[in-house]
Amino acid sequence: MDAFELYCKRFNEYLNSLPIEKIRMESEKGLKQNEEEFQDFREKFARGFCSYCGLSLLSFVKSKPCPHWLLKPKGFRKRFFPILYSIKSFHELEAYLRWVANSEILVRNMAHDKLSEI
Ligand SMILES: [Zn+2]
């Protein structure tokens, strides 16, 4: 058994030792927190602001790396990606882009609703 297999075996044993109610509570807590963060993100995104840094989604401040740089604000260049990677993992950046994709549909629908009211 190599080190990775041993790690997996121990992690499995650890998970199996946890009471099912504790796992359920932690899972629900995590889901609730994620939902709250997504709601905050969507509200600010719809107004053109970033829920992480609080700045406009159109802003680019080199000294304040933020996932909203993936939206290519003016001044952002590919060479700044390593700065972004240094603060967020691939999975965090991917999750951010998923939220953006979901929110753009929401914002598009809201804009459509507003236009149909006119
Ligand atoms: Zn930001």
Description:
This protein is mostly helical and 118 residues long. The protein has one domain (3-117). It is 65% helix and 0% strand. It is built from 4 helices and no strands. The longest helix has 28 residues, at 90-117. The protein is flat, with a radius of gyration of 20 Å.
Give a concise summary.
The protein has helices spanning 3-17, 20-46, 81-87, 90-117. With 118 residues, it is mainly alpha-helical.
Characteristics of this structure?
flat; 118 residues; mainly alpha; binds zinc ion
Which secondary structure elements does this structure contain, and how are they paired or packed?
Elements: H1 3-17, H2 20-46, H3 81-87, H4 90-117
The structure holds zinc ion (ZN).
User: What compounds sit in this structure?
Assistant: zinc ion
In N-to-C order, the SSE pattern is: HHHH
Taking the sheet with the most strands, its summary is: none
Radius of gyration: 20 Å
